[in-house]
Request: fold
Amino acid sequence: MAPPPASAVADAMNPPARPRDSQTNIDIMAVTKGFHWPWFIALVAAVCGVLMAASALVYQTYVGLGVAGYQAPVFWGVYIITFVFWIGIGHAGTLISAILFLFRAKWRNAINRGAEAMTVFAVLTAALFPLIHIGRLWKFYFLLPYPNQRYLWVNFKSPLLWDVFAVNTYLTISVLFFIVGLIPDIAIARDRAVGWKKAVYTIAAGGWQGTGKQWKAHNRTVLHLSGIATPLVLSVHSIVSWDFAMSIVPGWHATIFAPYFVAGAIFGGFAMVIVVMVPVRRIFRLERYITDYHFENMARFILFTSLICGYAYGAEYFIAWYSGVEFEQTSFWLRAFGPYWFSTWCMIIFNVVFPQLLWFKKLRTNIPFLFILCFFINLGMWFERYVIIITSLSREYVPAAWGLYIPSTVELMVLTGSFCWFSMFFLLFLKIFPIIAIAEVKELEIHAKEPGHGGAH
Amino acid sequence: MKTLVSVYDLPSEVSTVVRKLKARGFDDLTTYSPAPFEEIELAEDPKPSKVRAFTLIGGLVGVVTGFGIQIWMSMDWPIKIAGKNFAAIPPMWIIGFELTILFGGILTILGLVGLGGLYPRPLDEHYSPRFSAEEFGVVVNCDERDVAEVESLMRGHNAKEVVLHDAH
Reply:
């Protein structure tokens, strides 16, 4: 038997010292390590908020829905408004992950993980609200295609049932998308962890080693999931909009609702990504990865979708006037000048007027300004749903049947708790998994090292 | 049998060496990469991934299930709603579509798990945490008489190091 070449033997006997870890791994995994006071304070506040909302919910469940501010004829209130709001927030993650992936927009790589996490937690939050809204939580299975005690099945012609399928499908696909993206990064964490953490990450990484076969299956999976998630994300908020548009309530019965809701969801979702990622970048010093360029691109999306929202608001008013239908005209007049004028003007000013400032590059790249603007956009988007739901229901047809809805303390506590619930999950996520998709960032960095490559993205 | 483990810095080096090794008949090889690179994927196996078959099957199962459960449940307890047929097809497209996506997505993930071997198991003997940092690995199993040729190919394409092991 011929001896192996000397060089190979020498290499085997004197392996080079283990090289340093990549700087990208070190920087991004640092978020999960150590103790950060701002993170801890935010987590304590979030947990307190969740406990407060839980106590309000227990009280409501015990006493009944009478403690909510429902007032005939308004029986969809803060809970449904907040459900639509959170479903909308959940749209940015899939847009960034799936649609921008299909368009090969590489700038998404630094923000997609945070946006995906946000999507999952936002949809988890949203999914609670129909259950809270029905009051008797233990009857939630009436929503599922399961025969009740008289063997009667659910009504497949109802948009509310379509919504059940749409939201659950969206939640499932968002979670799967999120996990698929996380696997290579969990393997990075596994390779650098010790003790019980290593054991947990080893199970979670599922044998990932970055072999050619694994990457091939992974890339195809991401591509196919992106392909099917793109029509899904557009369908979900369309179906949510049909909860309203399929009825004949003035202000709801409009064909524009589906694209109007989808654009609004992307608008609000991007604003929430900025609200969440600005403090994360600052506290965990991730400026090298999440740059002003990323925020500027998101600001452009916000500006674009703000224009669509503005167009939709205008079209609604125009069609109400042009239709000549008295109920429709009255409904829209009362939106702007009736008892809920405040919410309507908040909606218009925060969602259409303020975002026009983003035409100026100086403001698009001013991170504190963007943070404040996006905070108000989120407020505006919540008010948009308030306007759609409450103004239409409270001033339906017969003036004798009109009513005035004012959210009760219990409802406001649950609403506040929903933000805390969302924040709690996001804060815990920050300390367990990498907030930036490390493998995808490395793909760009390593490509930039190739000879002849421009090196910039 | 012997195993040669080589380490690289760039994906172009890996894709070139993999292509050349395969051209010379060294097919028993594995690459390790810290990030997805299409050039390596194509060099190692240019055939399309079978994941797409899982997506297609899942989608078809989903659309059939979606329409199937709606038609069956609508006919099981027939109630006239809004003057429509008991099993009116147009509104069924929505749930049919959602279940197409749902089942397509779930089957796609099963495809990833099956084809990528994604289940908790011991890592490969020659896997190194370096491959989840910034370096690439190419591991080739070959006969003892081919070691010199493989090593020279590896070193000729900028392998930072080449280590020889006995194959198990």
User: Anything to note?
Assistant: Chain B touches chain A through 84 residues (CB under 8 Å). The radius of gyration of chain B is 25 Å.
